[in-house]
Structure formats: C-alpha cells, structure tokens
Automatic annotation (TrEMBL):
Alphabetical list of InterPro entries matching this protein: APS, APS_kinase_dom, P-loop_NTPase
EC identifiers of the protein: 2.7.1.25
Domain APS kinase positions: 101-250
GO molecular function, one term: adenylylsulfate kinase activity
This protein's name: Adenylyl-sulfate kinase
Known pathway: Sulfur metabolism; hydrogen sulfide biosynthesis; sulfite from sulfate: step 2/3
Lineage of producing organism: Eukaryota, Viridiplantae, Streptophyta, Embryophyta, Tracheophyta
Keyword ATP-binding: yes
Organism the protein comes from: Brassica carinata
Coiled-coil portions: none
Recorded GO CC terms: cytoplasm
C-alpha cells in the first residue's frame, strides 16, 4: 500500500513496503523537512536492507550535507569548477533493493548479426527471473540522445562513448544494462570497459559472418550498400574489428544458435559470476 504525507504543501508517497512509522518527516536546525527513511541529514539515519531486500534496520551515515566547505573543485574536459557530490544511498543499497548487481552487457556485431534480438530475448529471460534490465539499442538511441551523430568514424566513437557513459549510470543504479550497438572499433569498446569496475563489463560478440548477415538483410541496408546507395556501411566499405578477448562469443557452430539458446548462455554467465543476486 502506498501512504502519503503532506509537508509544506508537498504530498510525499511512502514507497511500497515502508511503513508510515519508518517514513516520517523530521526537521533539523535549518528547518528543512527531510524524509528520514530516504534522504538523511548529517548524523541522522538511512535505511539498510536485509538480504531479501526488506528494510530491517537503520544505519548511521554522514552524508555530507553539512554546508561546510569540502574538497577541491575539479576541471573535467571543458567543465570547470565542478565538484562530485556523494549520497549516502549507494550502489550497494540499490543492488540490495533489487537483489542483483548492476553491470553492462555490451553486445557487438555486424548489422543483422542478431544484437537486438538477443538483447530482447535476454531482457525477457531476466524479467521472468525478476531481474531489472534496460536495453540501450544503437538504432533506438540514435532516435534521440545521439540523433546528431552520423556514421563516420569519429561520430561512431562519440556514439559509443555516450552510450558507454549512460550504461555506466544504469549499472550504478543497480540495473543490468544491455547495450546493443555495432560498435565496430575495439578501441571505443575498450574505452567503455575501462569506465566500469573489473568484471562489470561483459562483452558479447555476435560471431555471425558477413555472408549470413547479408543474406538476412532485414532492413535491406546491405542491398543499398552494395548498390553504392549507402556509403560507409559496416562490413561492406567500413571496418568491423572483432573482439580479441570478449567474455562471451555467440553464433559459432557447436553452440546454441537460436536467440533463446544465446540468451540462456548469457544468463548462465551472469548467474555463475553472481550478478543475479545482491
Ligand atoms: N553506414 C552504416 N553502417 C552501419 N549501420 C548503419 C549505417 N547506416 C545506418 N545504419 C543503421 O544504424 C544501425 C547501427 O547503429 P549503431 O549506433 O549500432 O552503430 S555504431 O555502433 O555507431 O557503429 C544499424 O542497425 P543494426 O542493423 O541493428 O546494427 C543500421 O540499421
Ligand atoms: N539467432 C538467430 N538466428 C537466426 N536469425 C536470427 C537470430 N537472431 C536474429 N535473427 C534474425 O536476423 C535479423 C537481424 O536481427 P537483429 O536482431 O535485428 O540484428 P542486429 O540488431 O544485429 O541488426 C532479424 O530478421 C532476426 O529475426
């Protein structure tokens, strides 16, 4: 049941599973209303979760919202005078809430190799297991965030960099993020890998030959590329660099090659590596 509190004209719903007694409003010396269970001030308490994700006890935190001057300012790229802000509710807390570990499944391969199909099958399988996933598909992200980018090498690199950064945020949220992009350059994929803690970037190679992809040609793009109507098409007149050391390679003879079997392989990997529990 979702309860609600009203404070300074704001109505705040208590999350499912948190009783109203745990979800009280308190006032500190600066008369700022806070949600004690969710957002705590210095010296107050925040929630912690038992193994099964229920909120079992309160842990003391110093969340740094003291108004005191802290640490130096930074310059990152063209962003000057910026400062990283920490929050006492951390990745580990979100992971406990979800009973899973945030990570990035990076699916790379030629157009038509089955990246989107695998991403969707994997998402369905994990959903059935009660795991939270989100897909960042190259085609889809290019409809919005990356609509300003073309297919020349530096734009593909920027496409991968942005998706890598967004995927990192999803993983930090505790979500299993499936990024499915051609991502033809090793260097760009490796740069995304370095954004994440060891093990949290799982590179999945759709090891399907150009001949097979071209025979599938579901969007008719290979035909257009062969006819010279699309320039710089991956695999035709633009490069694709296969991974040298990926975690999972799918599509070869002797392994399950249906989307369901491929998704099972990835789920088994995640289970083995402990990503499907907190
Ligand atoms: N020149 C060229 N080369 C390759 N692909 C092209 C091109 N032009 C358009 N498309 C369509 O764009 C989809 C690939 O987008 P991505 O963002 O995954 O590409 S990349 O990672 O930046 O290389 C790709 O989708 P998929 O077939 O799902 O891979 C194509 O539909
Ligand atoms: N494992 C598979 N075996 C056979 N056909 C597949 C498989 N995965 C995808 N396909 C088919 O191949 C085509 C391309 O798949 P898609 O997922 O769109 O590839 P991509 O996202 O890499 O471009 C689609 O017609 C799809 O139905």
């Amino acid at each position: 049941m979702i309860g609600a509190k009203s404070f300074l004209g704001l109505s705040i719903a208590s999350p499912k599973g948190i009783s109203d007694s745990n979800y009280s409003l308190s006032t500190n010396s600066r008369s700022v209303g806070v949600l004690r269970a969710c957002v705590s001030m210095e010296g107050s308490q925040t929630m912690s979760h038992s193994k099964n994700g229920s909120i079992s006890e309160l842990k003391s935190v110093n969340n740094g919202h003291t108004g005191q001057k802290q640490g130096p300012l930074s310059t990152v790229g063209n962003s000057t005078n910026i400062k990283w802000h920490e929050c006492p509710v951390e990745k580990v807390d979100r992971q406990r809430l979800l009973d899973q570990k945030g990570c990035v499944i990076w699916v790379t391969g030629l157009s038509g190799s089955g990246k989107s199909t695998l991403a969707c099958a994997l998402n369905q399988k994990l959903y059935q297991k009660g795991k939270l996933c989100y897909i960042l598909d190259g085609d889809n992200v290019r409809h919005g965030l990356n609509r300003d980018l073309s297919f020349k090498a530096e734009d593909r690199a920027e496409n991968i960099r942005r998706v890598g950064e967004v995927a990192k945020l999803f993983a930090d949220a505790g979500i299993i993020c499936i990024a499915s992009l051609i991502s033809p350059y090793r260097r760009d994929r490796d740069a995304c890998r370095t954004l994440l803690p060891e093990g949290d970037f799982v590179e999945v190679f759709m090891n399907v030959s150009l001949e097979v992809c071209e025979a599938r040609d579901p969007k008719g793009l290979y035909k257009l590329a062969r006819a010279g109507k699309i320039k710089g098409f991956t695999g035709i007149d633009d490069p694709y660099e296969p991974p040298l050391n990926c975690e999972i390679s799918l599509g070869q003879e002797g392994t399950g090659t249906s989307p369901i079997e491929m998704a099972d392989t990835v789920v088994a990997y995640l289970e083995r590596k402990g990503y499907l529990k907190a």
